[in-house]
Amino acid sequence: MAQARPEMAYAVPNYLTETSAVLPAIGASTTGHNLHYLSLTKDGHHFTSLYIRKEFIARVFCELAFVAFSISQRSNVRDALVVLSQRYSIRSIKIDVIALGHLCEREAVMNNPGTAAIEVARMGIHWLKTFDRVFNKKIANSSGCQIGDSRPTIDYNDLVKDVYNFYESFKDPVEDCAVNDFIETGVSDGKGRILADNPILKDIDSVKNLTKILDAGTRFVCDECRKIGDVVIALEQPDGHRLVHLDKAFNKFCPVLKREHTQIKSVVAVDKEEQASMQGKGDHL
C-alpha cells in the first residue's frame, strides 16, 4: 500500500507595504479601503523598512503634530482650520481632512481648541503605535537611513508640546545622509544613475528629482532625500518580498528591477464600487 505523500509546506508571502498604502494597513482609511488592503495581504507577513517608517513619520505623524500645534495657538478651531487650508501640499491636506473628520466625531471638542489639539496629537501617537504594531518586521536598512527609527518622547504632561518638539527635531537634516552612498551619488554608473537613465522611468517625479541631484554632483541632506523616496524604496525592496503600493510609479519601478508587486485600489475606486453595489441592490428592491 502506497504511503501518503506529506503535504508541501505553504510558503507564507512577505509583503513590504510602501508609504502610499500604509493608511489602510493601519486601519486609518475608509472601512471599505481597510478591508480591501486586508483582503490582499491577510495571508502573509507584513514588513516595513526604516526608510518607509521615516516617510510615514514625515508625512503623517509630523503633519498631525503641526495641525495639533496650529490649533493650540488659536482662540478657536475654525480659525486654525482656515489657516491650515491655505497650505498647498496635497499630502498635507489629505491628512488635515482626516484629522478634521476625527474631530467632527467628537463634536464637543470643536468649541475647545486646547482639547481639539490634544485629540489630534493623540491621533498621531495612536497611528504611530499602530504602525509599529502592524509592521513589527523590518527588512535590512540597506539605504542607511539614520532617522527612520526616531521615536517621540511623550510624558503626557503637555502632549501637544511633546509631539511638536519631536516635529521640530525631526526636521533637522542629517548633514551626511547615508542614502547618498546607497544610491551611489557621484558614481557615473551607480545604482541611482542607472535608474535615472532608464527611459521607462524618466517621467516619474522622484526620478526627475534624482536626476537633478545626480547632475549636481554634491551630497544631499534629508530635504532632498524626501524628494526621491520612491527611488529609495524601489531599490531597497529585497528579492522575495512583494511590494504593496497605491502609487502607480511602482508599476514601472518593480518590473524594471524585476521585483514582485501588488497595486491596491484607491479610496475613490473602492468607494465607487461600494456605491455601485448599493445602487444595484436598490434597483432590485
List the helices and strands and how they pair.
Elements: E1 14-17, H1 22-25, H2 31-41, E2 45-48, H3 50-72, H4 77-85, H5 90-104, H6 113-134, E3 137-138, H7 159-171, H8 179-183, H9 191-196, H10 205-216, H11 222-225, H12 229-236, E4 241-245, H13 250-257, E5 261-263, H14 267-283
Parallel strand pairs: 1-2, 1-4, 2-3, 4-5
Helix pairs in contact: 3-4, 3-5, 3-6, 3-7, 12-13
Describe the structure.
The protein is of the alpha/beta class. The protein folds into 2 domains: 14-173 and 238-270, no CATH class; 174-236, no CATH class. It is built from 14 helices and 5 strands. It has helices spanning 22-25, 31-41, 50-72, 77-85, 90-104, 113-134, 159-171, 179-183, 191-196, 205-216, 222-225, 229-236, 250-257, 267-283; strands at 14-17, 45-48, 137-138, 241-245, 261-263. The chain has a 5-stranded parallel sheet with strand order 3-2-1-4-5. Helix 3 crosses helix 4. The chain is globular and about 60 Å long. The N and C termini lie far apart (58 Å).
Order of helices and strands: EHHEHHHHEHHHHHHEHEH
Quaternary state of the chains: single chain
Shape: globular
Instruction: State the major sheet.
Output: 5 strands, parallel
Cα-atom radius of gyration: 21 Å
* Tally of discrete structural domains: 2
Side by side, the strands of the main sheet go 3-2-1-4-5
Q: Percent range for helical residues?
A: 55-70%
Structural class: alpha/beta
> Unreliable runs, pLDDT <50, ≥5 residues?
none
Number of strands: 5
Output mean pLDDT.
91
DSSP strand content: 5-15%
Number of helices: 14
The CA-CA distance between the termini, in Å, is: 58 Å
